[in-house]
Amino acid sequence: MCLTLAAIVLAAGCNAAPTNSPAAMNSSTNSTMKFPFQLTEAEWRQRLTPEQYAILRQANTERAFTGKYWNTKEPGIYRCAACGEILFKADDKFDSGCGWPSFSEIAAQGKVIERDDFSYGMHRKEVVCANCGSHLGHVFDDGPGPKGLRYCINSASIDFGTDTNAPTWSAPDKK
Q: CB atoms < 10 A from the CB of 2, how many?
């Protein structure tokens, strides 16, 4: 019984999609904010895989322990999968046990925007890319280090690599 309850609480901590997602919001932050990198919804659908579109543009969440980066330990950087902005460094990635990539810091100030998410009867902080407004995950105050933050990020919302140069974009192969 306790394990079941703990699993539900853990899943709700990172897993629930917010009601203020980029696609769900018509009159709140994303419709009033202008992001430096903007595309039409048709262009987003063309650029992103169906899974990436659901997560980045509709604020869905991949299942725990299934994303390609939840257990990655190599040195490098993590970019927004939608626009290529550098968001996190591998040096700040840690194993939080939640099943999603977790970071204690962002790559630089201003790379993400945190905003209130009151979905599912709880209060959390949603994290979106400051460059394109895409949903990345949530940030919690139970992380390591001096700031005590845990950026709980969907693998499908980030790309991992070692190159710090700006990416050259082409539409991904849709599966």
A: 6
Residue 28 CA, chain-centre distance (Å), reads 19
**Contact between residue 121 and residue 46 where contact means Cβ atoms under 8 Å apart:** no
Give the total residue count for the chain.
175
Which pLDDT band holds residue 44 (cuts at 50, 70, 90)?
A: very high
- Provide the pLDDT for residue 24: 44
Enumerate domains of the chain plus CATH numbers: 2-161 (2.170.150.20)
Residues noted as catalytic: 152
The pTM for the full model equals 0.79
Q: 80 phi and psi, to 5 degrees?
A: -65, 130
Task: With beta carbons less than 8 A apart as the criterion, state whether 150 and 139 touch.
Answer: yes
Number of Cβ within a 10 Å radius of residue 33:
14
Residue 71 CB contacts under 8 Å (≥ 6 apart), including other chains: 95
Q: Which residues on neighbouring strands pair with residue 129, listed in sequence order?
A: 112
